Amino acid sequence: MIAASTPSMCMSSSGSASTPEPYPASAEAAETIGSLASYILRSFYQALNTRPSGVERVARRMAAEVERICQMSDRIQASGQVGRWQQSLAQHRVGKCLHYYRLGSTRGRVELHSALSAIVYRYIAPSGSQFGFEGRYALLEDFMQTFYIEVLSAFRREHGLAADYSPRSRLELAEYMAFSEQYAKRRIPLRSGSQQLIVLRAQAFARRLPPETSVDLAMAVDTPRSEEGDISAHSSALQQVREQMVADAADPADGVIRDRIVQTLITYLEGQNQPDCVDYLVLKLEDCSAAEIDQILNLSPRQRDYLQQRFKYHIEKFAQIHHWELVHQWLGAEVDKRLGLTPEEWARFLTELTPAQQELVRLKQEQSASSALTDQAIGEALNWTPKKVKRTWGEVLGLAWKHRNE
After folding, report:
1. Which of 122, 214, 312, 324 has the maximal Cβ count within 10 Å?
2. pTM over 0.85
3. How far apart are CA 293 and CA 279, in angstroms?
4. How far is CA 262 from the centre of its chain?
């Protein structure tokens, strides 16, 4: 995972009252939103057994968003099951909001920051640059704070809120964090496929495009369905700029190590008898959405959640125990580079280790400098079995991961 500080995300505990939300254009839409808002309110009450501050406003905004999405989607309108889609989308929005609500302000911000940082880590530096972990981390922080400002502006715009609106209650903050994740992951159509919005923003940041050439992608984000919007979205000039932003002339060496990781991970998953995890990985590498993955693998939402948890478990084992050297080399966080920690973080990290773990770190650093020192030799020096060496080193890497993220 990527190092993540607790971001400000342009939130404050106080904020002026929002302007009234715009009313729907038709009585039918108003009735639909009212029905969805009631359903969302019941979902919150059942999950929390309480009435959080601002829950009615949050439910109303979620309902309006779901109704708007369903109205704009040709596929949903043609499915003949608009009501089922509305309920499914509402459940998804409520689930995301409850997830951040239960995490709370601090843990929620850290998790969101870590998840979004992981997406853009490889795109944040100019192609061919030689930035290490710390250099990329500094660039990442600059980019993410700018991106959070954009997200807050989009949140206000899409929900018809005042220009100085900020989340005030715990539930409103959770709603905003869930929106931030969804906004960052929106798919922007390109000739060659599609790409997540936050990746396009990161690539533009890395290239330092002047404002006059960095076309605002708000038109693409809002996915207009009018004839004028379709013409604009598919115009030659806009497509050229999009293609330029998404084209990633990556360092060939970086591509080589990435391919090695992918192939090694596939081999590892096959060795663990996890063919469905291999299928899931391949589809994720193709940027397939959750709905597309469900359709291709014939999964129910529950089955996909289970598969995701199993996949995450094996990824952690792969990255922290079985092939940690390869993964940390790709991150620029090798053991001779303090596992991606700053000197201050490294000093604190070492103080939290047991004497045996500290000795293991020292021996691993020697191993990095000299290939003659094997894990078996390290085990003999510590009077440990090779299995205990691997297990304890995995624990040390896990602690380093927590330091990078907290």
Report:
1. 324
2. no
3. 9
4. 19
